[in-house]
Amino acid sequence: MGNLKNKEVIWAIDYSTNLSYNDLATPTYPNGHPRGSNSGHLLYLMTYDQVNTAVLIRDINNGRPFNRYMPTLSYLNMFDDANDSRYDGSFQTVWYANKAATGFAIGDTINHYAGLITQVTNVGGGGQIISLAIVNPGSLISGQLTGANPGGITSTSGGGVPGSFNVLWGVTTIGVTNPGTGYGAPPTVVVSPGGDIQAAGTAVLGASSAGNPTVPGFFQQRLVLAGPVSSPQQFNISQPGAYYNYNISNPIEPDNAIAGTLVSGQLNTIQSMIAQPQGLIMLSDKQAWLINGGSAGSPISAVQINANSQAYNGASFPPPIVANDNILYVQSKGSIVRDLVFNFYTAVYTGTDISVLSSHLFYGFNILEWAWAEEPFKVVWAVRNDGVMLTLTFLKEQDLIAWAHSDTQGAFKSVASVTETVPAGAVDAVYTIVQRTINGLTVQYVERMTELYYPLGLTDAWCVDAGLQYNGSSVLTFTGAQHLAGAIVTGLATDNLGNVTVITPFAMPVNGTFTLPAPASPATGFTRVTIGLDYLPQLKTLQLDTGEPTIQGKEKKITAVTVRVNETLGLSIGQTFDLCGTETLNLSEIVDAILKVTGRRRIKLPLPFALANIQAAGAEFVFNHLLGKAPPLNRDQVTMLRTDNASLICFRQRIA
Q1: Cα-flanking dihedrals φ and ψ of residue 41, to 5°?
Q2: Using omega within 30 degrees of 0 as the cis cutoff, is the peptide bond preceding 193 cis?
Q3: Using CA atoms, how far apart are residues 610 and 244, in angstroms rounded to an integer?
Q4: In the beta sheet, which residues pair with residue 530?
Q5: Residue ranges of the chain with per-residue pLDDT less than 50
Q6: pLDDT for res 577
Q7: What percentage of the chain's residues is helix, strand, coil (to nearest 5)?
Q8: 239 alpha-carbon distance from chain centroid
Q9: How far, in Å, are 115, 129, 150, 157, 315 from residue 154 at the CA level?
Q10: Beta bridge partner(s), residue 452
Q11: Going by C-beta distance under 8 Å and a sequence separation of 6 or more, which residues neighbour residue 342?
């Protein structure tokens, strides 16, 4: 007090002993309180200790209950108590019970605010509660209750007198009021309710089922996020040059973010987007849409954006491929492949079915994914759901649209193209994931398609699948082919004199080490060996029809066939007849069929090929050399058993 009243203070009214300066004259202090006058700041608190003496008593936290004054009505009207946070910051409206509860018995249940229910587990003298157990934890929503500790009692099952409780509420969910921008990863959220109590959590972006976009894209320096699961027709476009800024202003400005929905008579699930000179092509499962600023090539803005339907075929999931000025996509109904190109005469995007002439490759199948290898041969590689690889040579300006299919000893699972520089130049290298059965195990290999580039002739050819190549000094023994363990392999071998020969098929040892027979003298070994799984290249013409009148259905005789090849090691032309039906059976399945037809039961014991070779060698020795008869099993038959029975008879003429 002395520091407040000294010779340097010109005028001090606080705590003056002059009663005329608003001191309190009471019977206890007729001359005013010793602390001095002007203590009006203590006279605004409510007399809370007189509201309910059973649950509320005077304490330090709630302050001195010296209620004498109230704010003027003019002052209170300055606040909007429903929306102005300053009102809650200036006035206290809730007081919580602070008197110890008494008269309780073990087992009494107590109902608190916000659904919290407890049960008394231990009491002391006078029925004061010593410990409680939580029966129902209850829950609080932001703004539901105010105050630091809403744990007061609302009712009890016994005769106890309610008192005060300290309740520590845990945070279960946090609502986002302002998401912010520029996150590279989900941010960490720290909750600080006060004191030394803290909780840490991670902001989860949410599953796609919660509404995250499924189709991303870029258009005119804006990030486009479209097709949230809960609203598949919706698209959201960022501000230009600010890919994570989706803010809007009031009034709307042209560079604001854009939120839109494809409006149509049927639900359109957005599948993909492609930026084109005329605008943004948005492919849905029902239609193709062109989005621009109102005319071809015009920029979009928050005040000018149009979405016009272009085609009504619909697209499925595989992202479209852009080949020059053509958009290739898989139709939503079936595995039909269509192209979409801008027609300058009608000013709309139109297209055709480019798979109609090869419909046998698509009917009953689905295309799972595809890749575009533009160079060197303009080829689309597409994985079919049965593991077959389809290829499309597409050169629209030359009217070249040609489909083919490739199979392998296994199944193609995925495909991608990567631009690489190789001796042949810059190419779009095609990589695939292939699932194979090797040595009884199911494995998946990453394999690369080789270029058709033969500067040294036949020795440069990769004529196998899952192949490896040796280049080095002249040797006969090679290692490193464990990935082909137990498989029948073949390939090409170039001896140290440059002669190229076909490797006789053999079973790859499990350790991947193999030895080739010595080449013909005077060569002594091999300097290049390409080894892998064999495949059979086949060409088949479409149905022949020479024009009007049609010759389909009539017997035709083909007297000559011209085939242009380069250094082939074997070429046959003829016809294949399936004389045994469409089933392809292995030995075990054939035995099962025989047992079923004959009504017999036998136990089948699997015999490894290594032991079968030993058995066949023994049979050859006994029957050929001792008995002079043909053995019931020879090693050639064991080799044949490694390949499933195809039940085909081929009539072919070898021409090269």
Answers
A1: -65, -15
A2: no
A3: 63
A4: 469, 492
A5: 146-148, 196, 203-208, 648-649, 655-656
A6: 59
A7: 15, 35, 55
A8: 26
A9: 10, 16, 11, 11, 61
A10: none
A11: 276, 277, 278, 325, 348, 349
Beta carbons within 8 Å of 564's beta carbon, 6+ residues apart: none
If one counts every other C-beta atom within 10 angstroms of the C-beta of residue 10, the result is 5
Tokens 């139709």 belong to 331
Rounded Cα distance, 128 and 418, in Å = 77
Phi and psi dihedrals of 600, rounded to 5? -100, 160
Q: Structure tokens of 337? A: 């492949």
Tell me if residue 529 falls in helix, strand or coil: strand
- Nearest residue to 261 (alpha-carbon basis) of 235, 237, 296, 279: 235
As a whole number of angstroms, the distance between CA 592 and CA 603 comes to 10
- Token pair, residue 638, equals 């064991």
Short-list 109, 106, 134, CA closest to 122? 106
pLDDT at 557: 73
User: CA 533 to CA 16: how far, in whole Å?
Assistant: 106
Look at the block and give the residue holding tokens 């010793």: 34
- What is this structure's pTM? 0.59
Q: How many CA atoms lie within 13 A of 280 on its CB side?
A: 26
Residue 152 pLDDT: 64
Q: Which domains does the chain have, with CATH numbers?
A: 43-169 (no CATH), 208-448 (2.130.10), 457-533 (no CATH), 559-656 (no CATH)
pLDDT in tens, 194-226: 554 555 555 444 444 557 889 999 999 999 999
